[in-house]
Amino acid sequence: MKVLGIDPGSETLGWGVVEGSGLKYNLVDYGTVKSSPKEKFSKRLLKIFDGVADVIWKHQPDVLSIEEAFYATNVSVALKLGQVRGVVMLAGEKAGIEIAEYAPRLIKQTVVGYGNAEKHQVQEMVRLLLRMKTAPQPHDAADALAIAICHFHHAGVQNKIKLAIKK
Predict the structure, then answer these.
(1) What is the pLDDT of residue 115?
(2) Which of 152, 147, 85, 156 shows the shortest CA–CA distance to 122?
(3) What are the residue boundaries of the structural domains of the chain, listed by start?
(4) What's the whole-model pTM score?
(5) Cis peptide before 138 (omega within 30 of 0)
(6) I need a surface site. Which of 57, 59, 133, 155 has the fewest CB within 10 A?
(7) Torsions phi, psi of 132, nearest 5?
(8) Does 3.40.50.150 match the CATH number of domain 2-166?
């Protein structure tokens, strides 16, 4: 299974591709899609859609794993993040791949063991779990890799639930 993790952001969107099965996985690639806050927001959304679509085309993931929306103190930020998540999920749906969503606290809990982990803690655990020489930079890409790793840890449970419901 190949998982594309996405850390949505309107200025810097992080992405990371991890491949494996069960709790054995390896790094494939990671990076960011950057857009300028000076650009019209609709142009930034198009750049994000195109960037994610390019990553999907290049790596052919089976699953797109994305961070769920969280409550932001600034309503405007929350709305923009929702729009970014929408175009990312649209890119995944258009490519016909499964989409999984995970809460930020669950991702940190799964990868670091602590739901309020700091950015550098997530980066270091991603480095260790993927056997990297240095921590992935920037933190947006490390977060995306953490989201992909989180899917590997929770996908088996989700499949068991789906099978039990079908019976």
Answers:
(1) 83
(2) 147
(3) 2-166
(4) 0.91
(5) yes
(6) 133
(7) -95, 150
(8) no
Give buried/exposed letters for 131-159 (b at 16+ CB in 10 A, else e): eeeebbeebbbbbbbbbbbbbbbbbeeee
Contact between 153 and 23 (Cβ < 8 Å): yes
- Per-residue pLDDT of 53-70, as tens digits, reads 999 999 999 999 999 877
Residue 75: per-residue pLDDT: 82
The pLDDT, as a whole number, for residue 5 is 98
- The average pLDDT across 102-111 equals 93
Classify burial at 9, counting beta carbons within 10 Å of its beta carbon; exposed 0-12, middle 13-18, buried 19 or more.
buried
- Beta strands per DSSP E along 22-153: 24-34, 63-67, 98-102
Positions marked active-site: 7, 67, 140
Between 104-111 and 139-166, two packed helices, what is the crossing angle to 10 degrees?
A: 100
Structure tokens, 159: 């499949």
Give percent of the chain with pLDDT exceeding 70.
Answer: 90
